[in-house]
Amino acid sequence: MSERALYEAWGVRSWPRHLRGPAEGTLTRDECEELITLLLKTGAPQQVFVSFFSLARRNWAIPSNLAFRGELSEVMELLDGDEFTCAPEYWWPEDRSWIVCTDYDSVFTIVGGAGALIESIVANDVLEAVEAVIAQPRRNP
Hints:
Elements: H1 3-10, H2 29-40, E1 47-51, E2 67-71, H3 75-80, E3 90-93, E4 98-102, E5 109-113, H4 115-123
Antiparallel strand pairs: 1-2, 1-3, 3-4, 4-5
């Protein structure tokens, strides 16, 4: 919800005292599990690439990898571990048939992929989603 919408709805420029907005820059564990379930239905299992924002590390003093390669089902192991504080910033499969982007400064996650994948996300009861349509496709030079 934008600052303007908050002001118009409640006369304030921030969330009311007992109402919390969405967590910024991450997916909850339940949302990640649900999204992974839908992504696994898109085709044969394949390697995925996952990268984390540098501030997602719990302990900045200990150098750690920020990019990983593995099975999609292994993403939950990264989330359940003690190294990172939030979901990956970017994740995508080898064939680049979809991409997930969760920006730490945003209150939303963007998923790009085939129409069937997007339809399954929008229709899902766990994920709050709307379809964004590109008005004019970008052309490669």
